[in-house]
Design brief:
Order of helices and strands: HHEEEEEHHEEEEEEEEEE
Distance between the termini: 26 Å
Number of helices: 4
Number of strands: 15
Number of domains: 1
CATH superfamily: Creatinase/methionine aminopeptidase superfamily
CATH class: Alpha Beta
Radius of gyration: 17 Å
Length: 255
């Protein structure tokens, strides 16, 4: 898999990412108390298909007996990622992360955002703000001649300075003709011999996605094989953009 994308490939990723961006914008009008998560999923699938794309998550997975059944991941409060939409209604004061992937013309876009459901607590609002700011701090480092873990360090520093923790069992990723490509993009600096990671080059396309917990970094996977929760039951937030590494400033394709 080639890490450096051509202009044509980037344009195709941009097309898919634009649909992702439009979905996340559209959802601003629908995230409210009483809305069922399965209804959000159905609406998003219709929107993606009407725009000429395919839901990238639906049918995704390595276990053929347990492929992801929905078009979006809907993760409420202590669910970090991969929440499966169902008949549950959103409640006042919750936070909900929506993760959406789109395939169009054989190339992918991926993005996520955490929304407030009605009025939320000051601490939850701070969690959302810090997580989103950490995403942008990481994106600032996604320029040619920097190193991969410059992104990781920037995210980790922003999160931990605020007293929160970054999830270590899940990471961002390269993206292009596959939804998940090399390299992994952790939100922390891994221990080991190479503390810098690979050198970034213009034309790399990455999905940077801080997953930030208000309590412990530890997570558990539910019996459905998908739903990832915080091990202490405290809230988690998730923001993600698909970006292109450029010489001076990263280009955000899902903005």
């Amino acid at each position: 898999m080639f890490l450096i994308k051509s202009k044509r490939e980037i344009d195709l990723i941009r097309d898919s990412s634009r649909i992702v961006s439009n979905v996340l914008k559209l959802l601003e009008n629908y995230i409210r108390p009483g809305v069922k998560t399965k209804d959000l999923d159905g609406m998003v699938e219709d929107f993606i298909r009407s725009a000429g794309g395919e839901p990238a998550f639906k049918g995704y997975g390595t276990d053929k007996e347990n492929l992801f059944p929905a078009s979006i991941c809907v993760s409420v409060d202590d669910v970090v990622v991969h929440g499966i939409p169902n008949g549950r209604a959103l409640c006042e004061g919750e936070i909900v992360s929506i993760d959406v992937g789109v395939k169009k013309s054989d190339y992918y876009g991926d993005g996520a955002r955490t929304y407030a459901v009605g009025s939320i607590s000051d601490e939850k609002a701070r969690l959302l703000n810090v997580t989103e700011q950490a995403l942008y701090k990481g994106i600032e480092q996604a320029v040619e001649s920097n190193y991969l873990y410059d992104i990781s360090f920037a995210v980790q520093q922003e999160v931990e300075a605020a007293g929160f923790s970054v999830v270590r069992d899940l990471v961002g990723h390269g993206i292009g003709k596959s939804l998940h490509e090399e390299p992994p993009v952790p939100n922390f600096v891994p221990t080991g011999a190479n503390r810098k990671g690979m050198k970034l080059k213009e034309g790399m396309t990455l999905a940077i996605e801080p997953m930030v917990n208000s309590g412990t970094e530890r997570v558990v996977v539910g019996s459905d094989g998908w739903t990832v929760r915080t091990s202490d039951g405290k809230p988690s937030a998730h923001f993600e953009h698909t970006i292109v590494v450029r010489k001076d400033k990263a280009e955000i394709l899902t903005l």
